[in-house]
Write a structure and sequence with these properties.
The protein is mainly beta and 278 residues long. The chain has one domain. The protein is built from three helices and 17 strands. The strands form two sheets. Strands 3, 4, 6, 7, 9, 10, 12, 15, 16 and 17 form a ten-stranded mixed beta sheet that branches. A seven-stranded mixed beta sheet has the order 2-1-5-8-11-13-14. Helix 2 runs antiparallel to helix 3. The protein is globular, with a radius of gyration of 18 Å. The termini are far apart.
Length: 278
């Protein structure tokens, strides 16, 4: 008899509301392996929700869904305790699925500052980040993918990655994007139109009425960056992408860019949550 492997089906729902000028938790639900922590927030910083996966990572057949909602006038930062690891999938186990859905109300500020997702050899991941932002709301979102840990001698030569974004403003789709890698990943990643020698990449998205005004600031933040990187703005959305041959170099560059953008757009301290420094 073939062994039956246990698979996780986790979920987290976090909803904040603003009352009397203060952002408060309105609703919370989490199911293992998803868990949510609420550390003390530094003065003048948005309320923080730190997500973690108690299973220590995901593999084929595992599923996680995260729903984050910041009501009108609220300010909240969603981040992760550490990098998420996607382990080798068994041949018949399917894909690991991660679905993040965010809603940002009128006059609200929301941040999705995920730490790196590390893909191990043979892993298969299908990830979707979807957000619906009120025309008067603002969202700063970050996702980073690492193709194996080079310092550990790891390579990501076989597997599958489908990484999709869907951003809506007031229910209307304003940006859709997808990256799909399968088959000979070394050939696809190494192609001139692909990643070249890069082993990690990041996408930063800022949605807000002032997105076009932040384009010059994003490019200013990128000028000292020695990595392949670029920024553009379209239809109320600012997009920044970076790649690197070293994941630690990329992390340093991303921290500088995201910290600078949150300071320029929202007047927040030019730093990321403390869990990024642990």
């Amino acid at each position: 008899m073939a062994p039956v492997h246990q698979r996780c089906d986790g979920e987290a729902l976090i909803r904040f509301e603003c009352a009397a000028g203060c952002t408060r938790l309105k609703d919370l639900y989490h199911r293992a392996p998803c868990h949510v922590l609420f550390p003390a927030t530094p003065p003048n910083e948005p309320t923080q929700a730190v997500l973690l996966t108690t299973s220590g990572g995901l593999t084929g057949g595992d599923r996680i869904r995260i729903a984050a909602d910041v009501g009108a006038g609220g300010r909240a930062t969603f981040t992760a305790q550490a990098a998420e690891k996607i382990y080798r999938a068994l041949p018949a186990s399917g894909e690991a699925v991660v679905h993040v859905e965010m809603r940002v109300g009128a006059g609200a500020w929301s941040e999705w500052l995920a730490q790196e997702t590390i893909l191990f050899e043979g892993s298969r991941l299908r990830r979707l980040f979807a957000a619906d932002v009120d025309p008067g709301g603002r969202l700063l979102a970050l996702e980073t993918t690492v193709f194996g840990r080079r310092a550990m001698g790891e390579r990501y030569a076989t597997g599958m990655l489908h990484d999709a974004w869907r951003i809506r403003r007031g229910g209307a789709l304003i940006w859709a994007d997808a990256l799909h890698l399968a088959g000979d990943l070394r050939g696809l990643r190494g192609a001139a139109f692909g990643f070249g020698t890069s082993v990690a990449c990041s996408t930063v998205v800022y949605v807000g009425p002032d997105a076009a005004c932040q384009l010059e600031e994003a490019r200013r933040l990128l000028r000292p960056c020695p990595l392949p990187a670029a920024a553009t703005a379209l239809d109320g959305l600012l997009l920044v992408r970076l790649m690197a041959d070293d994941a630690l170099e990329l992390r340093s560059a991303v921290i500088a860019v995201v910290a600078g953008l949150r300071h320029a757009a929202a007047g927040l301290a030019p730093r990321l949550p403390r869990v990024w420094q642990c």
